[in-house]
Design a protein that fits this description.
- There is one protein chain.
- By secondary structure, the chain is an all-alpha fold.
- About 60% of the residues lie in helices and about 0% in strands.
- It has four helices and no strands.
- The chain is extended and about 45 Å long.
């Protein structure tokens, strides 16, 4: 675990895209429905930042899902 490594003085160093994603770290250990919900959220965030998803729609969706 990362916090354990830091406490022991071993801080991991990643270059560029070598750092594992949450999907890679949690593959097989996460509820597929939760993983899908996170994917949807990440996609919506990208669209929101690009101006392709209206802020009101984004907020309504998040409120409906309890996020």
């Amino acid at each position: 675990m990362l916090t354990t490594s830091i406490k022991k003085g071993r801080i991991p160093f990643y270059r560029g895209s070598e750092m594992p994603t949450w999907k890679e770290k949690l593959a097989g250990r996460m509820d597929p429905l939760l993983a899908e919900e996170i994917d949807v959220f990440e996609t919506q965030m990208v669209l929101r930042r690009q101006g392709k998803l209206d802020e009101k729609i984004f907020a309504e969706t998040r409120l409906r899902r309890g996020c």
